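Fold these two proteins, one after the other.
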Amino acid sequence: MTKAGNLPKGKYVLYRGEPREVVKRTKAHHGRGSAQARLWLKSLISGNTIQEGFTVDEELEEIDISFRSGQYLYKQGESYIFMDQETYHQYEVDKKVIGNAGNYLIEGEKYQLGIYDDEVISIRLPQKVVLEIKETAAGVKGNTVSGATKPAVVETGLTVKVPLFIKQGEKIIVNTDSGEYVSRA
């Protein structure tokens, strides 16, 4: 058990039955009474962030989450299959745990899997990934307005707005936080 006033950003706690990451903490003391700690807690299962107020002496259960390297193998129905690189154990991860990260997963690539109680509860993606364009319209000559874009479907099925000069078969770099085109690979 750790006091709410001592929980730094990046620690993991069990709150309302869910493992959560402390993404922000502020403290305030308003004259009378005890000091208050305001925590922003991100659920590692749903991805939702809640804001809660605690007294600085209120205790929360701190938990350990291990991050292991896992190779993405394939998608099977509503599940994604990963293999631990050290033990060769395969994890079946539900689509709701993966969330939007499924738009950036490439077969054979390695990702960081957050494991709690022998179950994968989160996945960490690199900030940028290289994806191949599978389908896009040809750029029209003369349509050169500054910043003009067109939709392109990448190998994972995600649709990204790309500049007009990008062609089918090219590889591009996509930001995993925003889902936006960064540059050619």
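Now the second one:
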Amino acid sequence: MENHAWALILVAQEGKLGETYNIGGHNEKTNLEVVQTICDLLQELVPQDSSYRDLITFVTDRHDHRYAIDAGKIEQELGWTPQETFKTGLRKTVQWYLSNKPGWQKVQDGSYQGERLGVTT
């Protein structure tokens, strides 16, 4: 999360107006690798008797087998490189979701109605 935010600040301050910069970490992974890593992190952080990997369900109509971003331009033109690895960044993301369950559960259960969250009046 911080990686991306710092890259956005750098682009806003030093990027060329009208240019597009892809922000990525050279971590090309298959969808299955991403899901398995999330399952392994959950098993470590919130252990259960059966493996979270047992919850993976394969479907026949998936066409997006992987995602890849070429971040060469932001590195070459602005000197930005990621400070997080795929695993450390994903760990922080999973930990955030585990720590903020009440907020995202409202979206999942349908009780979130578009109001601004996290702001007190």
